[in-house]
Amino acid sequence: MKLIQLFDEVLDNHFKVPPNGNAYDLEESSNPNYPITKLRKKGKALVYKFDRAGRLFPFFDEKKGFIHKSSDYIIFNEKENALFVFVVELKSENPQNAHAQLFASEKFVNFVHSMVEAYRKINKIPIVGNDKLAIRHIVLSLKSPRFATNVKEDNKYHIHKQFDYQYLHKRAGTNLFLENLCT
């Protein structure tokens, strides 16, 4: 079984976002005026929204920053035998405030991956292809990215200095093509 199929089998469908044709609508549910970003895709993708009502991690103290939250969307996409995972945070205000939440969501993805691996081993399910994740971070905001200078640089990932991860900052309301983000 491929890794993306295992994630699909293990994660609760209650959190899965249905596609709208060949795209997913990424929306900020707390702000009805926030522009919808269309995430276009080819092939299999899984999109989850875990930050619904209630606490995702009720065993953590909710006064302790971002450790009890998840990013707005977590997206799984297989490309060339690699499983890319995108943690996506939508921000109305300062996009710099997204980074701690993206970092916490990366740790959540690693935890889920560990549980998928445990499920696979307990049930003796052979893995087909690569079992590694390529995690990327995306901030969508109402502010234009400060480093977007030309079309060639449009999908260039940057390294976050404090959290040491690759991230992309895009303006909310634009079309994103999932295949172009898998680098």
Task: Give an overview of the whole structure.
- The chain has 183 residues and is α/β, with parallel strands linked by helices.
- It is built from three helices and nine strands.
- It has helices at residues 3-10, 99-122, 178-181, and strands spanning 23-26, 37-40, 45-48, 73-79, 82-91, 133-141, 158-159, 166-171, 175-177.
- The strands form two sheets. It has a six-stranded mixed sheet, with helices on one face. It has a three-stranded mixed sheet with strand order 1-2-9.
- The chain is globular, with a radius of gyration of 16 Å.
- The model is unreliable at 148-153 (pLDDT under 50).
List keywords for this structure.
six-stranded mixed β-sheet, single chain, alpha/beta, 183 residues, three-stranded mixed β-sheet, 3 helices
Brief write-up:
This protein is an alpha/beta fold and 183 residues long. It contains three helices and nine strands.
Blueprint of the fold:
Layout: H1 3-10, E1 23-26, E2 37-40, E3 45-48, E4 73-79, E5 82-91, H2 99-122, E6 133-141, E7 158-159, E8 166-171, E9 175-177, H3 178-181
Parallel strand pairs: 2-9, 5-6, 6-8
Antiparallel strand pairs: 1-2, 3-4, 4-5, 7-8
* Low-pLDDT residue spans: 148-153
Q: Give the amount of beta strand, in percent.
A: 25-35%
Q: Round the Cα radius of gyration to an integer and report it.
A: 16 Å
**Main sheet makeup:** 6 strands, mixed
Distance between the termini: 24 Å
How would you write the strand order of the largest sheet?
3-4-5-6-8-7
Number of helices: 3
